[in-house]
Request: fold
Amino acid sequence: MLPFPDGAPMKSNPECMLCCFRQALNTARLITEDTEIQRRVLAGVADYVRGASLDQTPAALSQPVYDIARAVTGAADLYERQKREGNRRALDILPRVEALVAGAADPLAAAVQAAAAGNVIDLGIGQPFDIERDVLAAMRQPLALNAVGEFRAELRPGRRLLYLGDNAGEIVFDTLLVREILKTGARVTFAVKSGPIINDALLRDAEEVGLTRLTRVIETGAADIGINWANVSPAFRAAVAEADAILGKGHGNFETCAGYPANFYFLLKAKCVIVAAELGVPLGAVVFKHQPRA
Reply:
């Protein structure tokens, strides 16, 4: 049983079904130029969505799309090449972003902005982006919802923060926020996926960008978009139970964790109309939203 009073924290709608097809075609095109294979991926998704329920999160609705793409293309990790490239390109511009954080009047707020800016690196949504241009631009974009003050009050010696990572490449900029949190004396546990799903960060990515040298990194126990609470490991559940606060990055974590009875902070760019409407912000807004423990 899901640990939510009213079932799924966020429901899908027909627009999400269209998004399944967008994600499928985007993924198939990354793997192959063979239009017949692309057609077979889309045909498999058509068979799936015909009977799919909207009474689930958009993340859960999208999950089988990637299973279909793997089965048709034979690629075990659909975004392996893109993850390596994302980490490399993000590390290339890290010194510039790091300097912006270090030189800011409020380094914690600047680090939140940097971590949020990294959320432009999202291959699942299918929107084009340029890491250098878009991350630096997002550093200057005001937060539409700003919980930095509440977050700062959480951070003191002995407090435990669970940080739910999102994408490869993006986690490069998460390191800046993790460093600022650690300076307060709070402890950070960073969670990555246990297997490939879209371009979500794995333990290899955390090692590649130096995150494992900075703080404790654990796996969720699953390879799901966001958090499938019925499919996580006992170790991850224990980390959730022990956390004084949880920071969830990106669409998937917001879709699957909003409404969970814990002290949550959500940091993301609203890249689709459904998530933007759920947050009550314009499409494209960057938000840092606090959901206090119920």
About this structure: The chain has a mean pLDDT of 93. The chain has two domains: 14-73, 80-291. Strands lie at 143-146, 160-164, 187-192, 216-219, 245-249, 264-269, 286-291. Residues 150 and 172 are 24 Å apart (CA to CA).
